[in-house]
Amino acid sequence: MQRYVIGQATFELVAGDIVVQQVDAIVNAANTTLRPGGGVSGAIHRAAGAELAAACAVVGACETGAACITPGYRLAARYVIHAVGPRYTGRERDAALLCAAYRASLHLADAHGLQSVAFPSISTGIFGYPLDAAARLALTTIAEALALPTSVRLVRMVLWDAETRRAYEYAAEKAGFTATAG
Fold it and tell me: Tens digit of pLDDT for each residue in 65-89?
């Protein structure tokens, strides 16, 4: 685990499974229909139970670059923030939409008074966003959000595999993050 201090918050890079994180909210790398998908979305929906899909059906949809929130049901987390990142096209707009999804998630967490949030690497699975670019954008956006007044005191990036972990560690180093002990 790598740990950094940003503003009044702690930012962590950890290897693991997002569905078991004991935080106020976990972020689902969602699609615009909010229906269960593969990867992170499928794992979250399976762990949360059928109630999560029913709650998502009530919400209906979420635009790319936006986020919405539901209860976490059977998860350790009280809430699921569903963030819709872009499908990678190679256009400049992709980066703006990816950053917007992270920002919208942190805004929702703050609006609900949440103190801890766990993110996956949004859009880097089946949506095809290049991992190195996505890691850089995610870390920059999260750092900017944590530098502002917010209720969020812990942001944890939960990285599924070694390749993703290395990409985020490298992006943190390039961004000038300084790791803290512990």
Answer: 999 999 999 999 999 999 999 999 9
Residues with Cβ < 8 Å from 87, sequence gap 6 or more? 64, 123, 127, 128
Which domains are present in the chain? Answer: 2-174 (3.40.220.10)
- 0.85 exceeded by pTM: yes
Rounded to whole angstroms, the Cα distance separating 32 from 36 reads: 11
Work out the angle at residue 14's Cα, subtended by the Cα atoms of residues 161 and 23, and round it to the nearest 5 degrees.
Answer: 120
Bridge partners (DSSP) listed for residue 14: 158
φ, ψ at 68 (rounded to 5°):
-140, 170
Q: What residues contact residue 72 under an 8 Å CB cut-off, 6+ apart? A: 25, 26, 48, 52, 78, 79, 80
Q: Which two tokens stand for residue 21?
A: 């994180």
Distance CA 175, CA 135 (A): 11
Higher pLDDT: 27 or 38? It is 27
Q: What is the Cα–Cα distance from 158 to 18, expressed in whole angstroms?
A: 6
Give the β-pairing of 25-30 and 79-84.
Answer: parallel
H helix and E strand count, the chain: 5, 7
